[in-house]
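[Automated response] Your request has been received and processed.

Submitted sequence:
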Amino acid sequence: MKTMTIKNKMDEDEKQLKKVFRDRCLTLAKRTPLQKEDIESIWEKVTTSYVKGFFCEYCGEFLSIQTGNKNVFSFDHRNGDWSEFKIDEISIVCLGCNLFKRNICEKNFKALISLFTKTGSMGLYDEMKEEIIDGIEKGKQRAKANGIACHSPRKDIDLNMVKEQYGTGIPLNAIAKNLEVSYSTLRNRLHEANIRVEFCMEKDGIIISE
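Generated structure:
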């Protein structure tokens, strides 16, 4: 049997890797608008990490490309402050560490991981990560079962006006601010209306097309 090379494996997993990557970029875009060069830079980080073995930069666990796995890869901002977003501050980490870390800076979080390691408590840390992920998912399921929306009341948005403003060169994030809605809300409404939203080099990194 022919030995599978890294390139062969990369080709085999590329579709799933890109799918999760796209989902992570869309989540990241809820925090800050992304330019095409930002996405390319993050993709380079992901593929470089993949070729080197694909390990979480915090706990060292092997990263998964399967959604639903506590170790599926995600993006974290090292200094913990997304309001000061810098592309070179992005870390490729497991979902469990990302949720556990929250807004803690990298230095303090790594000190915490080191404490778990030195005391032989990484098993406990893994259990805590699983409990956080399970708790979030169960909370969403309970809310849905009870008809409780996990978001603010829906606001009407004139998407034709959005397209007109965007066509004049106004960035999508600026339009969202003027409408007093979040960037992610506006992007989601465009998706609902079957108005394709893609990352590109134009304006604020988003292009709208029918």
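Summary generated for your ticket: Residues 159-209 form one domain. The first strand starts at residue 73 and ends at 77.
If you did not submit this request, please reply to this message.
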